[in-house]
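Database export, one record per block. Field names are fixed; values are copied verbatim from the stored entry.
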Amino acid sequence: MSRILSIQRLIAMLIKEFIQMRRDRITFAMMLGVPLLQLVLFGYAINNDPRGLPAALVSLTNDPYSRAVVSALENSQYFKFTVENASPSEARRLLRKGEVTFVVTLPSDFAKQAEAGTPNALIEADATDPAASGAAVASAPAIIEKAVASVKQNNPKLKQDLLRTSTTIHRKYNPEGITQFNIVPGLLGVILQLTLVMMTSIALTRETERGTMENLLAMPASPFEIMCGKVLPYIAVGGVQVCVVLVAGRLLFNIPFEGGMTLLLSSILVFVLSLVLLGYFISTIAKTQMQAMQMTFFFFLPSLLLSGFMFPYAGMPVWAQTLGEIFPLTHFLRVVRAILLKGAEWNEVSSSVYALMICVAVLLVMALKRFKPTLD
């Protein structure tokens, strides 16, 4: 029996494994960090019923009915008027840039319409993400009707008849609420991030595990040249993936291509650069390919949840939105959806592209500083 199972040998093996786990600090941190990260993100940051969505108000009047409607919409917690007294052109520009989710327009004769029992308001919603704006749009007509009714009750001279609201809803950029129009452009960023970061993260660790790192360091090449040699092939891989996803999205799901292809491809290139540099930076930290894959997963999970791909970005708390701004995927999703679905131009996506450029610059410096020209 002792030849098959020895308690002493088993205890010795267990001690050896625990010592090995303690020495592998990255793996040990992942075992503790991933569950805690999932608990925090799913428990606090994720919200399928977003509230406080930014809205612009185009009010051509300042009567009690208009004020009551605006107050009621804000009290519903679905709408948060970040821009008031905007002109129609300015409000639509903000909607196109993605700075607001709704544009609420109250006509100049809104009070007269309300007293006649037929108040008419216009709500334009950014429907590129149907899940984010759906609940707010569905509740808006009833909210407006109750607000107008409450004002009329204070005026006994008016007929307290049943209101016939005719609130007009315009779902912009995705009027039919097709989920694929929101998901497929986002999948382009998710697929690129998952594959490129993982492949480039094992670029240097593979050399170390195969014993060819000494030959690489003995070459008369600078750290920048080594980095370029490692990441440029994967940029080509990313180009192939981009072509496959865009062609498949057009042929299989009929995704609209409203914007310019030059701007789209240029933005994708900047995003791909940030991903391969991130993967290379991870490879300068990890000692094994397993550690590189673990660190890639640890980055991928919060990026996927906080970028606005799976859950509405506007529904997250402020701290989660601030954290989400760190990830390149967050800015890329804004760019690719704006260009494909809204036909956005450079001035409307420039802030997100600049953010991606900053990510590229920071990751480039960090990767070069972390690169060690020796095996020690």
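Remark 1: The CA atoms of residues 130 and 178 lie 8 Å apart.
Remark 2: DSSP finds 15 helices and five strands in the chain.
End of record.
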